[in-house]
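Pasting as-is:
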Amino acid sequence: MNYHTETLIGHDPSVLNQIEAVTFDVGGTLIEPWPSVGHVYAEVAARHGLRGLETQHLTKRFATAWRSRKDFNYSRSEWSEIVDATFHGLAAMPPSKTFFDELYEYFAQPQAWRIFDDVRLALDALASHGIKIGIISNWDERLRPLLREVELDKYFEVIVVSCEVGFTKPSPVIFEIAAEKLCRAPGTILHVGDNADLDAEGARRAGFQTRLLRRATHLQAHGEIDSLDRVKELLGIK
C-alpha cells in the first residue's frame, strides 16, 4: 500500500513523494533513559560507596563527555571511557575499575528506559495500514534484547544496528543497508529521528526523506515535527 506525503528535507517542496516505509531512530525517538542518565549513574555509584552525587550534575557531565567524543563506535570499551570521563574527579578510582559493568548491564534492562507516550499509537497506526517499519540505530549488542523486553520489536520488519553492520549514522551506508533489507528505494522511505546531523542529514544524504523530531518545542521549522503523531498525519492516516 502506498501513501503520499508532502516533501521533506532536501526535496523540492512542489513535489509529492510516495512513502512505502518508515524507519526510526531509537534513543530519544522511541525511548529515553529513565528517570535520567544522572539518576541511574548516581544510584549505582551510591551502591559502591560514592554517595551524595547530584543527578542533574551527573547528567550534564555525561552530556559533556558524550559531545566530546568523535567517531564514537558504541563499543563496550568506548562506553567505559565515557563513564570514566563523567565521573572524572568525583571518584578515587574510575568506574571502569569498579562499577562500570553494573552500569552497562543496568542499561540493558527495561527498567532503565521509558517509551515515549506517542510511540505505540504511531507504530500501531503504521502497522495497521501495511506500512513497512524499520529501525536504524547507533547502538550496541544490548538493543535487540532490550526491544524484545519492552515489546517493541514486534513492530519492526527490519532492525539495523550500527554494531552489527560496522557503520554508524550519519554514514549513508547504514541507511542503504536498511533500504536494501526493506526492499524499498531510498526515496520512498521516511526516516524519523531526533538528531539533526545523525538522523536528518544522514538520511538526506542517503536519499531518504526525513523528519527531525523535536518534542521539546512547538516552534517547528521546515522538516521538523513535535510528535510521532505527525508521522500519521504526513501519511494521511487517521
